[in-house]
Specification:
Blueprint: E1 5-12, H1 19-35, E2 38-42, H2 56-59, H3 66-78, E3 81-83, E4 87-89, E5 96-103, E6 109-114, E7 120-123, E8 127-130, E9 135-136, E10 143-146, E11 149-153, H4 162-170, E12 175-177, H5 184-202, E13 205-208, E14 212-214, E15 220-222, E16 226-228, E17 234-237, E18 243-250, H6 251-260, H7 269-272
Helix pairs in contact: 1-3
């Protein structure tokens, strides 16, 4: 089994407010990705339930819980690493966490990451959202060592904070996943620019799986899921619909990029802190 070169996939969805329907759709599209040879598959943000913000607490689940059990069973059945996008996780307080989960081919939950940065914006005439009204931020930077490479886990709005991606890279990340629900106005202006920048500056593969179309809350999501290589080249891009995209991850190529343009070795540690494992 080659762990230096393999196929990865991003699944693009338009998730609704029915968990059962969303899970059925997820299973179909993940199976499609696996049929194309994908061994690492990434789902979008809030892929299992999207609905009115006042209902988020009632829709949230513990982790592990029923939905993660089903996602784990899917990973086990297809023998893939599966980043379960993100799901709403119950907390001890009134707000919920927005949590990305990673399953290995045995179906075990091997990592979970609570979104650090909350999308509180008001762009006149376009977007007005306060995630912090119903969601609590996480507190930890998360990487996961796998035979396919070390994965760094992020979610959506995190994309605008390069210091997180540098921390992940210094913690060993070779592939960074970005389950997202990027809104159309900000997506059209910044999505590709930011995804490619995070790949270039850290010389990592980036798998950015986005929601597409109109959500149950009325917001329109940008789509354009993509996979970007360590040189910043978009090696797979989704059409404007629910779909699966695949591309080859070549870690030998990544090593060559890092060797020939060794900018990561030139980082001045006083600017970003020591390489302390994240």
């Amino acid at each position: 089994m080659d762990t230096r070169r393999f196929v990865a996939a991003a699944v693009q969805l338009c998730s609704g407010s029915s968990k059962a329907e969303n899970l059925d759709k997820v299973e179909t599209l993940v199976a499609t990705a696996a049929a194309h040879g994908a061994r690492l598959i990434v789902l979008p943000e809030v892929c299992l339930w999207r609905g009115p913000r006042p209902e988020e607490r009632s829709a949230a689940e513990p982790i592990p819980g029923p939905s993660t059990e089903r996602l784990g069973a899917l990973a086990r059945r297809l023998q893939v690493y599966l980043v379960g996008g993100s799901i709403l996780e119950v907390s001890d307080g009134p707000r919920v966490y927005n949590t990305s989960v990673l399953f290995d081919p045995r179906g075990d939950l091997v990592a979970s990451y609570r979104k650090l940065h909350l999308f509180d914006v008001d762009i006149a005439g376009h977007v007005s959202i306060r995630e912090s009204d119903t969601r609590a931020p996480g507190e930890a930077v998360v990487t996961a060592v796998t035979p396919l490479g070390t994965l760094g886990m992020t979610v959506c709005y995190d994309l605008r904070f390069p210091e997180l991606y540098r921390r992940l890279t210094f913690a060993g990340a070779e592939i960074i996943t970005i389950p997202s629900a990027f809104t159309f106005p900000t997506g059209a202006a910044h999505w590709e620019l930011l995804v490619r920048a995070r790949a270039v500056e850290n010389q990592v593969y980036v798998i950015a799986a986005d929601q597409v179309g109109r959500s149950p809350t009325g917001m329109v999501d940008f789509g354009h899921s993509m996979i970007v290589d360590p040189w910043g080249t978009v090696i797979a891009r989704a059409a404007d619909r629910e779909t699966v995209i695949v591309a080859e991850i070549d870690r030998d190529y990544q090593d060559r990029v890092r060797r020939e343009l060794p900018c990561l070795t030139h980082v001045r540690s006083f600017l970003v802190g020591p390489r302390d494992g994240g």
